[in-house]
C-alpha cells in the first residue's frame, strides 16, 4: 500500500510539472475573447508550451459555453460550428465541463487539468497493482510532462488501463463477467477517443479460446455485444438531440486531410506527391486499409501464439494493434504517446525499446513546435539549416521505425504481471 501511495504522489508531482509546462503559455494579459496575450501563438510554438486545450478555447464555441454537438454542424469547408468539437461525445462533455465556469484560456487549461488529473492518478494506481515497480514508467515519464494536458487523453487512457485491471485483478468473478466489464470500459473509451475500441477484438478472441474443451463463441459474442451497446448508449442521446452536430465530429475526422497538422508518416514521406484532391482521396483509402491489415496481422500472430501456448495474448495483441494504428493512421498527434505508455508497463519488452522510443518521441514532440516557430517567423528551417529540422526528422522516422519493431516485440513478450509472478516463484524456490 505504501508503494502505491508513493507511486501516486510521484505521478501527482509529474502532473503538476506537466501543468506548469503548459501554463507558461497563459496570460499575463487577455483580450476580449479570453485569449492570452501578448503574442500567444509565437510563445506557444517558440517556448514549446502549446496545448490543444488552450488553443481550442477559441474557434469551437467553447468560450461561449455552448453545449456540444446539439446545435452545431460542419461547413462545406470543413470548419465546425455551434459547439461541435472534433472528438467523440464523452470528450466533448469533459471539454464543456472544463469551460463551464471560466472565461479565459488560462482558466480553461487549469479547470481541464483539475478534471483530468484524477484519471492520471487512477492509471498510476492500477498500473502499480498490475505491474509493481514498472509503473514508474508512467509516474515519472517525460511524455506525462509533455502531453498530460496537451489534449483530453487521460480519461481515455484510464479506460483502457481499467479494462486490463478488471481482467487481471477481479479474481472472484468468472472470465466472462470480467471480460464483459472490461468490454464496457473499452466501449466507454471509444466514446472518449475511439482507440480502446480496437482492443475489443483481441479481448473477444481471448474469451473465445479460454474454454476448457471448445471455443466459447457465446462469451466472445457477449464481449463484442457489450462494447457495441455501450457505444450506442453513450452516443444515442446526442444523435437524437442533434444528429447533424453529432455526425459532424466523425465527418471532420473522416475528411481530415494529410497535412502538417496530422504529423504522420504519410505527410512526411509522401508530401511531395500531394497533387491536391487525388492524393487526399487516395490517402482516405490507403491509410485505413493499411491500419486494418496491421490489425489482422497482429491478431493472426496472436492466434499462432495461442496455438503454441494455449493462451491468447490479448494484451500483447492490443499493444501491437495500437502500434499499427499509430504508424499507419493518417493522424499522429504528439499526445498519442500517452496511449502507448501503459503498454510499456503492462508488457515486458526490453528496456532498450522503451528508452529509444522515449528519446525519439521527445525529439519529435519538442522540435515540431520549434520548427513551426521558425516557419512562423520566417527563419531558415531546412534540414541543412540547423538541428531543429534534423531533430524533427530523427523523431518522426525514429519513432516510425521503433513502432515497426515494437509491433513484433510486443507480440513476442510476456505480460509484466506474468513476468513478476515468475520472478517471485524463482525466489521462493
UniProtKB/TrEMBL annotation:
Q: Which domain of life is it from?
A: Bacteria
Give the residue range of the signal peptide: 1-22
This protein's UniProt keywords: Cell membrane, Membrane, Signal, Transferase, Transmembrane, Transmembrane helix
| Topology term for the membrane | Multi-pass membrane protein
Q: Where does it localize?
A: Cell membrane
Mind telling me which residue stretches traverse the membrane in this protein? 80-101, 108-127, 147-167, 179-208, 220-243, 281-303, 315-332, 353-374, 394-413
**UniProt cross-references to InterPro entries, sorted A to Z:** GT87 (IPR018584), UCP010361 (IPR016570)
Q: Does the keyword Chaperone apply?
A: no
The entry assigns this protein to a family as follows: Belongs to the glycosyltransferase 87 family.
This chain's protein is named DUF2029 domain-containing protein
